[in-house]
Design brief:
about 800 residues, alpha+beta, Aspartate Aminotransferase, domain 1, Aspartate Aminotransferase, domain 2, 4 domains, seven-stranded mixed beta sheet, about 40% helix, about 20% strand, disordered N terminus, BioF2-like_GNAT_dom, Aminotransferase class I/II-fold pyridoxal phosphate-dependent enzyme, aminotransferase
Amino acid sequence: MAKIKHNNFLDTVNEVFTDAKEQGVLHLYAEGDNFTGRKIRIKQKDLFHFGTTGYLGLEQDKRLKEAAAEAIYKYGTQFPLSKSYISNPLYRNLEEKIAQLYDAPVIITKNSTLGHFGVIPSAVEDGDAIVLDHQVHWSVQSAANVLKTRSVPIEMIRHNNLDMLEDKIKKLSSKYKKIWYMADGVYSMYGDVAPLEDLMKLCDKYPQLHLYLDDVHGMSWTGKRGTGYVLSKLKELPDNVLLFGTLSKTFGASGAVAVCTHKKRHHKIKTFGGPLTFSAQLEPASVAAAIASAEIHLTPEIYMLQNELLERITLFNTLLENTDLPLVERNNSPVFYIGTGMPVTGYNLVNRLMKEGFFVNLGIFPAIPVKNTGIRVTISRHNQAKEIISLVQALVYHYPKALEDTHTTPAKVRAAFKLPILNETPKKKLVEEVRVEYEQTIERIDKDTWNKLMGKQGVFDWDGLLFLEKVFTKNKRSENNWDFHYIIIKDEKDKPVLATFFTYALGKDDMLAPISVSIKLEETRKKDPYYLTSRVLGMGSPFTEGEHMYVDKSHPHWKLAIKQMLDKIEELDQQFNSNWLVLRDFKHDDELSKLFHEQGFIKMVMPDSCQILDLYWNNIDGYPDSLSTRSRKHFKKDILPYEDRFKIVYNKEPKKKEIDQFYELYHNVNKNNLALNMFPLPKKLFTMMAQHPNWEFLTLYLKKEFNAGKSDIPVGVMFCYNNMGNTYTPAFIGMDYNYTDEHQVYRQLLYQTIKRATELKFNRIDFGMTASFEKKKVGATVIPKMSYIQAKDNFSLELMGVMQNN
């Protein structure tokens, strides 16, 4: 199998966060000598604070502060001892009061993240299974992934999709004792909630179903005694539900709480819960503050506080209803999400609001899909009516200006969030410095113009694309029918600034996923061939490799040309409703990377491209001298001694029997190359290659003396395209794996390709992606390549992350 380096998810997140930091909306520092909660000082400016998760404002309550200060003077800044040995003197009081709140046994944890890492591996037993809502908090997903080492299967469903959950339950119920569904009570980005009533009906229908509910964003501001959203719906906690709440955020202190009515499970978690045993315990100040907050929760005062918050939430909701702002989820939680679509629009709006005196949070990838960037506004008791009104006024004024600054529209934003499109007043079209020419067949584009801009590489000169158009149409299988879309952008003097082409095709979501993921998915696809496949509107085509976009970066309007291209493919995307937009095969370019990210794309690492850029030797005898000392030794040891084992045939018009043999060899490689997992190409392709003057089949026949006296047999084939007499392109390969190792078939194919290109006087060879180590040894230059993707949602990415090493 080809070995490629797969995209590092953390590198992608790092780039996104770095960009947001450079835009001044992330990793900020609060300033000042005191903090009241109503305002927050940033960059020497006092801003009204609409980004807190302390919704009731208890973190500023005098009683909590005094309790914390007194505890420090009595017991010190910490109680440096594992809680498994002995708890600080205040712990028992806290546990009793929190248990009184819930009317159930509880376990106090240092924080919710460590709590999940302690509770989940203890609660979930060997022989159980886990199903994750794909929007459940990162800390829950991370803790669940620990159980992969114990062979606990982890599945994932789309957000709040209970039909999908029921299908998973049916699939798992015959193999596993308990099935744990893990979800949030209130989700932290959009403020939407879990469908608890329907979940309990599923629990009644399937007794194996257990619920693990993280309700940290539902705490205190709602529910009896402030016990949160989940208990406000369930009323009491059954044995098959494990609830997680927080003593920080709205509760006003620190720490978290697991609530478990199942006695045996509770005892097991509390006795030994991994990080719960080995981590430091809560500091005396935090315990004391939590006790003070619990005492407030145990009195009618909590309902007064909740009502005061509800008045503010209702006011904000009412004001938003009278605007056209795209509120993603309407409910009575203190979390509001207003979509901006592109990250650059989000940056612009956050900075505009900060200049107006308001601080809000930015919602960015990976918490949400990159094209679903928006601002998260949280309402707290600190906020007064007049600044809530002023915030809405600022939003109404600045939101359209942020869209205009970043060349987007309300319709585009609403489409990204699947919100109803409002009637917009058409704006007067300005005279553009560039214009878009769009066609759906290469035949409508001037051949010389296209070849000048895009020719001499890969299989996408004018003739190559016409060939592909004819191959990938009117086929039986949907994955073999592609739509082609050509874009040329010219300036007012008719000079091309940008040229590219896209195809709309069905692809496998795991094309670049780790091999372990593709192996599992291919097992599922034996019964469901189109499982985890998606419609992709992608630059280039599934067949081609190379620089699929020409852009004249010396032109003053090149960035505008790229934005025009993106506008056009967004228009096509809305027409087709594709799952993915993909811009691919780019070299490293910080300027392009920043531009694409701001327009809603995230960078992914692709397999390296391999090319011999200059066949400068006059004949093949001069080729070894072009290699490094190490590669020359490899050539003399692993390639040259094996050449005489093969009869080399350059076949331009193979017969039907030969085409069948070549197709079988290709199919061998396609099945084995899960590192670049793609649908197999149709047999029609090979038949049409045999009729096209630009294609030839470079074939290795193993001589009978090396095949037990049998007749010569084909053991390897390189399918090669002649691009304008300039570039020799071995587009893909076929091999018989029964002979590859013993006879060094793959290495011989690489060498014979070089030999053939040299004989035909080509200038370069495009070896394509994967197997860069082997290609480098025969003299190829390895060129790192990037792609930029935009997904409708993060489900496939997160599901494949869960599947890795599962």
